[in-house]
Design a protein that fits this description.
By secondary structure, the chain is of the alpha/beta class. It has a single domain, classed as Alpha-Beta Barrel (Anaerobic Ribonucleotide-triphosphate Reductase Large Chain), CATH 3.20.70.20. It has 6 helices and 10 strands; from the N terminus they run E-E-H-E-E-H-H-E-H-H-E-E-E-H-E-E. The strands form 3 sheets. A 6-stranded mixed beta sheet has the order 9-6-5-4-2-10. A two-stranded parallel ribbon has the order 1-3. It is globular. The relative contact order is 0.21. The model is unreliable at about 170-200 (pLDDT under 50).
Length: about 200
């Protein structure tokens, strides 16, 4: 039976993401599924919202996006989501303007923007700014296909495994130093329980 995707929710150091340790775990996990007669079609990586990861530094965000775009696929991770810009203040609207160039500079990176919350409702100015992003994205690739790697979010919680909306929960402090225990989602047409390999020592 095929597993459409395995989605890993992880925290990585934005300046020095440890993809080798993650790749070891991906291989072990896929081998465990193979022993149970499952074939994994794709492996996906999900990070917390990139503004939280980079302290709202677009230059570091682009550096991280390009590094993951270049180095994750050879390690068996086909797609990566860098999470949303959570639009709550004017400076967040300015950050949105970077996203079309990021999509143009990558091929496996997914991005998003959140313009609503249960407490505050929808922010019309953010919705209009996101619409401008969608319009600019349409010029990045023929047929507007870059928009397949972008989503406008409304009240989407962390942990949802579906791209491009997926993002991991943020933590305060230098969370890339926390023990490395990724959460995992399997998208599979079966409820059969699967064996879980042991993560590498954190």
């Amino acid at each position: 039976m095929n597993v459409r995707s395995i989605t890993f929710f992880v925290h990585l150091d934005p300046r020095q993401p440890d993809l080798d340790s993650l790749a070891e775990y991906v291989v072990a996990f896929k081998e465990a599924l193979s022993r149970a007669d499952y074939t994994v079609q794709t492996v996906r990586l999900v990070l917390p919202p990139w503004p939280d990861v980079t302290n709202e530094d677009p230059a570091l965000g682009l550096e991280l996006a390009q590094k993951l775009d270049e180095e994750a696929p050879p390690r068996g991770i086909e797609y990566t989501s860098l999470g949303p810009i959570v639009c709550r203040e004017r400076r967040h609207l300015e950050m949105l303007g970077h996203l079309p160039a990021w999509l143009a500079a990558t091929r496996t990176i997914f991005l998003s923007a959140d313009y609503s919350s249960k407490e505050l409702g929808a922010w019309p100015d953010a919705a209009l700014a996101i619409a401008d992003v969608v319009r600019a994205n349409a010029q990045v690739e023929p047929g507007g296909f870059a928009n397949l790697r972008f989503a406008a979010l409304v009240n989407v919680p962390s942990g949802v495994p579906f791209f491009p909306a997926a993002y991991a929960l943020s933590r305060s402090g230098p969370w890339w130093r926390w023990p490395w225990r990724p959460a995992r989602w399997l998208w599979k047409p079966s409820r059969r329980l699967l064996p879980w390999p042991t993560p590498p020592a954190g």
